[in-house]
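PROTEIN ENTRY
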Amino acid sequence: MELAYVCEWEKRPKSTHCPSIPLVCSWSCRNLVAFSTDLKNDDDDKDVSHMIHIIDTEHPWDVYSINSGHTEVISCLEWDQSGSRLLSADGDGQIKCWSMSDHLVNSWESVLSSSVDGDPIVALSWLHNGVKLALHVEMSGSTNFGEKFSRVKFSPSLTLFGGKPMEGWLAVTVSGLVTVSLLKPGGTLLTASESLCRLRGRVALADIAFTGGGNIVVAATDGSSSSPVQFYKVVVSVVSEKCRIDTELLPSLFLRCTTDPLRREKYPAVTHLKFLTRENSEQVLLCASNQSGSIVECWSLRKEGLPVNNIFQHRSPVVGEKQPTILKWRILTTTNDLERVSAVALPKLPISISNTDLKVASDTKFCPGLGLALAFHDGSIQILHRLSLHTMGVFYGSSSSAQRPGDESTIKRQRAAGPALHFKALQFSWTSLALAGVDNHGKLHMLRVSPSMGQVLEMNTTLRHLLFLLEYCMVTGYDWWDVLLHVQPSMVHNLVEKLHEEYMRQNQALQQVLATRIVAVKASLCKLSTATAARACDFHAKLLLIAISATLKSLLRPHVLNTPDKSPGDRLTEICAKNTDTDIDKVMINLKTEEFVLDGPPLQSLQQLIQWVGDFVLYLLANLPNQGSMVRPGFGFMRDGASLGMLREMLVMIRIWGLLKPGCLPTFTATSDSQDNMQLLFRLLTKLWLCSRDDGPPQDPDESLIDECCLLPSQLLVPSMDWLPVNDEPEPELGPDSGACGCVTMLRSPNKTNAMKQWEQRWIKNCLCGGLWRRIPPTLT
């Protein structure tokens, strides 16, 4: 199927939704979905709470509801580019900015607000930060991420000193007012309002887009299809510490259906007005409707030559003179008569629409970012091509009166069931592979959207499409939950291998930036299949290993300030890579031990991390003889020269610190008191590392090494490693549970040392796996 259910959710069955009030929905790049409902108390019809609900799609059964405090119906919800702040606006002109408290996804607070008292907000947007990528389908086979996802020259809406984008938001009111709120570096707001034009009129619908030059374009209509759709350029600036707004009228358009003699009065109302993308102010989508049907038109702004009067055509042309031009709206395409449209969703994936890219997308059946979604009053959804408006896919809701092929009883069931359930708000995910919709009863639905819109593809082509989108998420930092919805267990191994191959083809600088992100993506992929569950354990362990190594190395300080370019951590890596000696003390002699000098309290506070490193090395070595298959956790490290080298470096650091503070050393339960446990582990680890170094062909461990590892359990008590934290088990139909690995931490840590504070700073915003933190209720703790 082109679209299929993932889950659905209903809030507070004792309360009822007010059917006459519109619903809004917004989906962030971190795969948080926010939507509003208006709940009235059964005992008092006048008592209506304007609620905002936020769900993390990785945990759709956990819903975080906020009583917004808005006095009128919520008309707009808008996430910022980072996905961590949310704007809400209402019918009384109030705008609130919500942000996570302590970076917890289930704890939100309103930190800033602005208002245009009594003037309902009809459109709302954050100012543009100047970051724009283009995704090139034509280059999907390239080995360079920079060619697949190119940075487009785009100016922020407003810049601070030094070119840093200034944060803020812009809103349009029903009376034709544009209001801007700028967030100053100190945290205060700078607010100003201005009329869109001199002759202010009613604005029933509006939308906001941005130009590459830093300007803002507002499209507005009074709701009548016989009236022009007006466009305005808005320029925001700061002059003498005050916000200034300048507006300019741009070319307008009349709907094509109003000039068609057959449809002139058929669709009296404009019900939807949307720019095709927020960074393209030159293409707009319009929907006109009546009580039973709708029609959709797509328009484009083009530069055309201005015809010259015949009098001037016979004169001699001046050198360098160009024909005068004018901007004019031209209709691209229009649909036939449709069922009445109830909601529209536009794609967020910034796919390039050059002729070459569109041809490659068509040839390979790559559809994400090319389709827009229309929801209808009969409960169905259609995906239309964003340029041609041709149907790409159809979804029939459970109460849809649209007859499925071969299903003659649908209409009979619909008549018996009463009014059709239909979507009042609809939003695409950031890769366009999922849809979130809120129906007319305040119920949230999640749908999966096929990357090929149901067209049959070869497995290699399907893998290439999913790989392309995973790479996009990896480069942008966006959450990849919606991509995982389409990964079958049989695809996991190939996707992980191909993702690693593409990563290794990038330059060293980019590899360093993406080092932890690719491991997190691999871990979430491997959790989708029982055959690769052990590899998921290895990837989670590698994330922790990378974090511990970076933390321990960051504590090293050069002995003198005027040091060479290399840091102590880099010199440690270089020396350990060159020195293949199995004696830890001989490796240690080559290091400047004064760079490793730390006070006692920091070392002692790090003992838990040092203990994990020691236990991990012991576990790997003790299980080396059992690694006959990939099923066992730890297999992935046996051939991972980089990770084994990292462990070797940390053992050297720990050895040096143990001379300064013996209490920080890892403790082992040994059968002999005279045995040097660190020396033993380092010797065996070095032998294993030599078999898998990056600068030579991989080798199988020799028999003597395996024999020594077989003896380890009789010399040291091997700890049981908790490879995967306990997961919140989702119901089978809810899809993959990525990024939510179940790790638990304390919100307020008792640790006071700088070393541990530095460790905990790494996890303030995100969990080890990249997922979001949420507060656990006291009853569960």
Observations:
- The longest strand covers residues 44-56.
- The two ends are 42 Å apart (CA to CA).
- The CA atoms of residues 127 and 169 lie 5 Å apart.
- The chain is about 25% helix and 30% strand.
